[in-house]
Amino acid sequence: MGRGDGSGRIVSADDADDAGTGILHVDMDAFYAAVEVLDNPSLRGKPIIVGAPEGRSVVSSASYEARRFGVRSAMPVSQALRLCPAAIVVTPHFDRYLALSSEVMSIFHDVTPLVEPLSIDEAFLDVRGARRLWGSPGAIARMLRQRVQDQTGLTCSVGVAATKHVAKMASTISKPDGMLIVSAAETEAFLRPRSVRAMWGVGPKSAESLEARGIRTIADIIETPRDVLDRIVGPASGERLSQLARGIDPREVSTTRVEKSIGHEETFHEDVWDPAFLRSELLRLSDRVARRLRKGGWDAATVAIKVRFADFTTISRSRTLSEPTDVGQRIGDEARDLFASIEARQPIRLLGVRAENLRPAAHGQSLWDDDEDRRKLEDTLDAASARFGGAAVMRATFVGRTERSTALPSHPRPPAIRD
To answer: What is the DSSP string of 136-187?
Structure first.
């Protein structure tokens, strides 16, 4: 199968059989890096790392030229530069990525209303109802790839299959700039020789547990008795793996995007000991999380923090709130309480705050709102930021500090498509 560096790539012939298909998974190729090349053509063909140039941040994206040296997303930039000393480090431009993501998603919506964005640079499309207008699923996939390239200058890879799971696997195998069609009749033959690590949703720990017991391919999963599989990964995961290995995936393309969590994290330029600075940073991150909650119309029932120490040991803590909230001060108070429960034996490299267990905001539905005054203040700050810019109004504790452009939201979502 294809790997993250594009080696082992498999693509379909122009006349490939697409009988029984109807689900497309479209994935932009090295999206952040590709956008940087689009805006600066002198970078084309060179190893590129998208991240903070000082090396303290993690890799947000990397070109395929850099990936062939072992560079991967979420790797420390310093490690990436050791693997690929000739790499060019480019500062991220997240607003630009969002703008191009919006263009791409609009192209998808021009073809079918059944679009399910997974992230800023990938989506599922159900094109079964679009055949009469646009042709077969394979023809639609070819048309989409061409439209994306013509209208944005970027390339994408597409998997075409009967189910979401197989379409996702197929797009990964065809990267970069490819298309792989797996007809309904060919699904089992396609799946059986693939590594268990190629299955969508099988993480490194599950893969290691399976491989430790000699289950290395999807065929091995099929041939393993269910009770054995259940003992390895648990009954729920055993059932899911057993079905996916046989090409069974009843999940439909969902046009209703439900946020599971919203978070921001920051990797510091230098490891930090100072408790006052760290507490201030937790509040700053909490404010950013809260702004996104309010913008999306969500309350959070749970607050979580992530702490990474100088030796890369990473721990997390979470707490369920007595009442859900979208107020930065309260999220920050909870985050700082959680942080106080952690014994910091080393300087800290990274801090993150995440809002979880999201639900639609319920302002005004309670007889008593402990956050009312804070919410009014933060609504005023939102209005001022929208009118004058994010740095125009801020808490006094942040005066003199600027948010780094390299601090990207974790798991960024694509912008909403407007009619």
So the answer is: SHHHHHHHHHHHHHHHHS--EEEEEESSHHHHHHHHHHT-SS-EEE--GGGH
Q: What is the pLDDT of residue 403?
A: 45
Backbone torsion region of residue 224, taken as left when φ is above 0, otherwise alpha when ψ lies between -120 and 50, otherwise beta: beta
Distances (CA, A) of 311 to 27, 60, 72, 243, 270: 34, 20, 19, 40, 13
- For the chain, the straight-line distance linking the first and the last C-alpha, in angstroms and rounded, comes to 39
Q: Hey, which CATH number is domain 261-410, 3.30.1490.100, 3.40.50.300, 3.30.1330.200, 3.30.420.10?
A: 3.30.1490.100
- Residue the block writes with tokens 């790539």: 9
> Which is nearest to 289 in space by CA: 229, 225, 358, 218?
358
pTM score, whole prediction: 0.74
Question: Please, are residues 394 and 287 in contact by the beta-carbon 8 Å criterion?
Answer: no
Which residues is 58 bridged to in the sheet?
A: 76
Looking at domain 192-243, its CATH class is mainly alpha
- Active-site residue (options: 122, 265, 266, 378): 122
Mean pLDDT (10-residue bins), the chain, 419 residues = 70 94 97 97 96 76 95 88 95 92 96 93 96 95 97 97 97 96 97 94 88 96 94 91 95 80 88 92 95 89 94 91 90 95 90 92 54 58 55 51 46 53
Is 122 tagged catalytic?
yes
Q: How far is CA 199 from CA 65, 166, 195, 218, 227, in A?
A: 25, 8, 7, 8, 20
Q: Where are the domains of the chain?
A: 10-188, 192-243, 261-410
Q: Which CATH architecture has domain 10-188?
A: 2-Layer Sandwich (3.30)
Gap between the Cα atoms of 280 and 286, Å rounded: 10
What is the spatial distance between Cα 137 and Cα 126, in angstroms, rounded to a whole number?
9
DSSP annotation of 411: S
pLDDT of residue 377: 57
